[in-house]
């Protein structure tokens, strides 16, 4: 049943209707205002804020946008609907709404809206039933399908991570040790050895054979590295002969005297004086100082070169590590995402 009101002035008419004259408390009804105007007319409908009363006891919950339709004979029909509700039992008279057409106000007639409550049978309270328990939502495969396939993907990635980890353990890292080689000039090595003889007080030692053996071996090694011939395998006279071709005669004479004394001590059990030992030590140092070069002590880093197989193994290990880290990160992200979605579905 509809309640209708119409107001017409000339070619303008305003019609109000409500879709139901009776509703329960809290239910909604719709008030529709229809305005018929000539073409080109400017129409302004009444506006209400949300929860504003259209009449005391009846609230406006919202309204549609005005809509126009041509109906022929140069006439246009405008419509707008308002959603109403009420929380008090009463028979309400909704006054005619004011609509402006081209600046002139037109008012519709009053319509009725009855709000009623639900009858409660207080004489038979045993007919009331308690609220039902919370029921689980029905299982829907469409909701769980993404979680299932993501779980399958996560398991596959986990298996891949395990495989890569095992491969990485089997593929031992290639350890390359960088060696640092110190290049000490021959004269510096010889002077260091002579300094040790002095620190050990070999010049005053009763074991003169050991002293002269160490001193001459130091000189032989120096001559070998400095002059380029194998003095370690030559006799004293052979060494002196080779040096006479390039060396200073005075220094060679002093060196010759040192070698002669050393041979006497080692092979003829000759006993020297302490000052004679010191003199021979000085002669050895002077010979080294007069024949040394300007070479400085240097350090060289020797990096071992990997074989072709070792280089392939190293690259394979780097690839395995990269894939393992990527797979592990993907598994972690998928696990968090899956747990979150399962939580959302179960709540």
Description:
The chain is of the alpha+beta class and 347 residues long. The chain folds into three domains: 3-118, Immunoglobulin-like (Sandwich), CATH 2.60.40.10; 133-176 and 307-347; 181-299. Helices cover 43% and strands 25% of the residues. Strands 1, 2, 4, 6, 7, 8 and 9 form a seven-stranded antiparallel β-sheet that branches. It has a three-stranded mixed β-sheet with strand order 3-13-10, with no helix packed on it. The protein has a three-stranded antiparallel β-sheet with strand order 5-11-12, with no helix packed on it. Strand 8 and strand 9 form a beta hairpin. Helix 3 packs parallel to helix 6. The longest helix is centred in the last third of the chain and has 39 residues, at 308-346. The radius of gyration is 57 Å and the shape is rod-shaped. The relative contact order is 0.10. Mean pLDDT is 82; it is low at 1-9.
């Amino acid at each position: 049943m509809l309640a209708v009101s119409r107001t017409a002035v000339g070619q303008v008419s305003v019609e109000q209707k409500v879709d139901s004259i009776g509703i329960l408390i809290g239910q909604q009804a719709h008030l529709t205002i229809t305005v018929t105007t000539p073409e080109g007319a400017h129409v302004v409908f009444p506006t209400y804020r949300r929860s504003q009363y259209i009449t005391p006891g009846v609230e406006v919950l919202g309204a549609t946008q005005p809509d126009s339709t041509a109906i022929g004979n140069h006439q246009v029909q405008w419509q707008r609907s308002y959603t109403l509700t009420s929380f008090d039992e009463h028979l309400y008279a909704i006054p005619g709404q004011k609509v402006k057409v081209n600046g002139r106000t037109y008012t519709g007639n009053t319509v009725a809206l009855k709000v009623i409550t639900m009858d409660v049978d207080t004489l038979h309270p045993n007919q009331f039933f308690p609220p039902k328990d919370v029921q689980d939502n029905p299982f829907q495969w469409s909701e769980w399908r993404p979680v299932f396939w993501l779980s399958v993907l996560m398991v596959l990635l986990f298996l891949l991570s395990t495989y890569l980890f095992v491969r990485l353990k089997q593929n031992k890292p290639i350890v390359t040790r960088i060696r640092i080689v110190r290049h000490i000039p021959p004269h510096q090595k010889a002077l260091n050895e002579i300094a040790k003889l002095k620190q050990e007080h070999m010049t005053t030692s009763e074991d003169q054979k050991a002293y002269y053996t160490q001193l001459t071996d130091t000189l032989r090694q120096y001559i070998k590295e400095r002059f380029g011939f194998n003095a370690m395998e030559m006799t004293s006279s052979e060494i002196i002969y080779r040096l006479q071709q390039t060396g200073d005669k005075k220094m060679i004479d002093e060196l010759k005297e040192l070698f002669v004394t050393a041979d006497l001590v080692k092979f003829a059990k000759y006993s020297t004086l302490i000052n004679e030992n010191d003199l021979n030590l000085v002669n050895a140092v002077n010979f080294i100082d007069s024949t040394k070069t300007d070479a400085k002590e240097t350090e060289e880093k020797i990096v071992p070169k990997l074989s072709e197989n070792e280089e392939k193994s190293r690259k394979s290990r780097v690839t395995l590590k990269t894939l393992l880290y990527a797979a592990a990160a993907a598994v972690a992200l998928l696990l968090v995402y899956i747990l979150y979605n399962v939580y959302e579905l179960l709540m």
